[in-house]
Amino acid sequence: MSKATTRVRFTIVDDELRVSVPKELDTLTDFFETEIGTSEAMLGLIEHHVRHERTWQFTGNACHLYLDGQTVTIEHDYAGTRTTVDRADFRILLSDLRAVLTDHR
Fold it and tell me: Domain of life here (predicted)?
């Protein structure tokens, strides 16, 4: 896991997902908070595609997700920012989020 992605933290505050990320991964904050939030169904959908599809695109309310081989790119529609991470690192982040949501139940 990259040094930057090891510093991503998920918490639930007043039933809302809050994400803390290093500056270089700032786009992930809106993706996780806005597109997934505390929805286990949405998390499951994204986990499935990240695990099983070589390429895939997801268009949410504020962000796009692009799978391309071994990378995942999140692009913020309004801010125009973009973050690309290794697919394996992104899978770990999804797993970390799953653990936080499971503990919150």
Answer: Bacteria
CA triple 76-80-84, angle to 5 deg: 60
1 by DSSP, 3-state: which?
A: coil
Query: What is the share, in percent, of the chain residues with pLDDT greater than 90?
Result: 90
Mean pLDDT of all residues belonging to the chain: 94
Angle between helices 40-52 and 87-104 (to 10 degrees): 160
Looking at the DSSP assignment, which residues form a beta bridge with residue 9? Answer: 20
Are the C-beta atoms of 33 and 19 separated by less than 8 Å? Answer: yes
pTM, two decimal places: 0.93
Query: DSSP assignment of 4-62, as one string?
Result: TGGG-EEEEETTEEEEE--GGGTHHHHIIIIIITT-HHHHHHHHHHHHH-SEEEEE-SS
Q: Specify whether the CB–CB gap between 92 and 32 falls below 8 A.
A: no
Q: In angstroms, how far is the first alpha carbon of the chain from the final one?
A: 27
